């Protein structure tokens, strides 16, 4: 999902959370291969409508590039008001510019000259450390079953698979 779509989704996430139970759109999103069966199980395991929708909104931006299009299609029948709100979001020009084809490559090329990236893999744990403009961020991906980990610090992202 590009930055413009992420912006649109996050701009009205509160409205979506208040007005949607994600379980009613999951089948469509799985059929469109936006979500996989593990995502479906994870979302359905949430006990409340609000938690299910919050979890869906966490997963969608990291899914396919056209995830928002498929999400809107899933909403079209019973949640047209949410689609209308999504379509009405005014994306700032700077974000639109970043989302244009070719802009990503330019951003990556520019960032690679000023950022230091280091990746380390140990079994099912991959840790990537990036330093850019004096700020260090770490992303830790953990794969496998029944893992428990406590990680803390500034700018830490944990992806659970």
Topology:
Elements: H1 3-11, H2 13-19, H3 26-31, H4 37-44, H5 49-59, H6 67-75, H7 80-88, H8 93-99, H9 103-114, E1 115-122, E2 125-132, E3 135-142, E4 156-160
Parallel strand pairs: 3-4
Antiparallel strand pairs: 1-2, 2-3
Q: Which short descriptors sum up this protein?
A:
4-stranded mixed β-sheet; alpha+beta; 161 residues; 48% helix; 9 helices
* Strand elements, count: 4
Strand content: 15-25%
Please bin the fraction of helical residues: 40-55%
N-to-C span: 19 Å
Major beta sheet, strand line-up: 1-2-3-4
GO molecular function: death domain binding; protease binding
Domain CARD: 1-90
InterPro entries: CARD, CRADD, DEATH-like_dom_sf
Structural account:
- The chain is α+β, with helices and mostly antiparallel strands.
- It has helices at residues 3-11, 13-19, 26-31, 37-44, 49-59, 67-75, 80-88, 93-99, 103-114, and strands at residues 115-122, 125-132, 135-142, 156-160.
- The chain has a four-stranded mixed β-sheet with strand order 1-2-3-4.
- The longest helix is centred in the C-terminal third of the chain and has 12 residues, at 103-114.
- It starts with a helix and ends with a strand.
- One of its GO terms (molecular function) is protease binding.
- One of its GO terms (biological process) is regulation of apoptotic process.
- Residues 1-90 form the CARD domain.
